[in-house]
């Protein structure tokens, strides 16, 4: 049975949706890799990637709709996490280009990296900020 949520925690956890978006991206890349060196059917990857983007969008909407939240802590964690993830995704993207990945595969991989680069800082920052007592809650 689930623990009762407090006023600050939404019933739907934004981090869960962000993790779901990363899982959809992993499924997209795994499906793409399973067809190598042939070209996979485009609808499979586009559907999985679309579900990943939709899950991330739900995470953002859920996060923004949180009424009482420690936004300063969230931003203090999210900014350096985003910079670190951006550096890592830049290196991965360079590896794709260096390896002569082109066309549909490069587009799918780049979009997937973009979703992951946005989702990971959200997961980290939300996981930290949700446990920081807010002045509005403590009084």
UniProtKB/TrEMBL annotation:
Q: Does the keyword Transmembrane apply?
A: yes
Protein keywords = Membrane, Transmembrane, Transmembrane helix
- Which parts of the chain span the membrane according to its record? 12-36, 48-69, 81-98, 104-129
The identity of this protein, by name, is Unannotated protein
Q: Which organism is it from?
A: freshwater metagenome
């Amino acid at each position: 049975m689930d623990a009762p949520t407090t006023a600050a925690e939404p019933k739907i956890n934004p981090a869960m949706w962000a993790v779901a978006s990363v899982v959809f991206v992993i499924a997209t890349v795994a499906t793409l890799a399973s067809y190598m060196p042939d070209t996979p059917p485009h609808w499979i990857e586009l559907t999985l990637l679309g579900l990943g983007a939709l899950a991330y969008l739900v995470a953002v909407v859920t996060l923004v709709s949180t009424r009482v939240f420690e936004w300063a802590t969230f931003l203090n964690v999210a900014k350096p996490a985003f910079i670190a993830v951006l550096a890592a995704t830049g290196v991965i993207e360079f590896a794709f280009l260096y390896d002569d990945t082109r066309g549909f595969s490069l587009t799918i991989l780049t979009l997937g990296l973009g979703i992951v680069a946005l989702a990971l800082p959200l997961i980290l920052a939300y996981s930290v900020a949700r446990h920081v007592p807010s002045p509005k809650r403590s009084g």
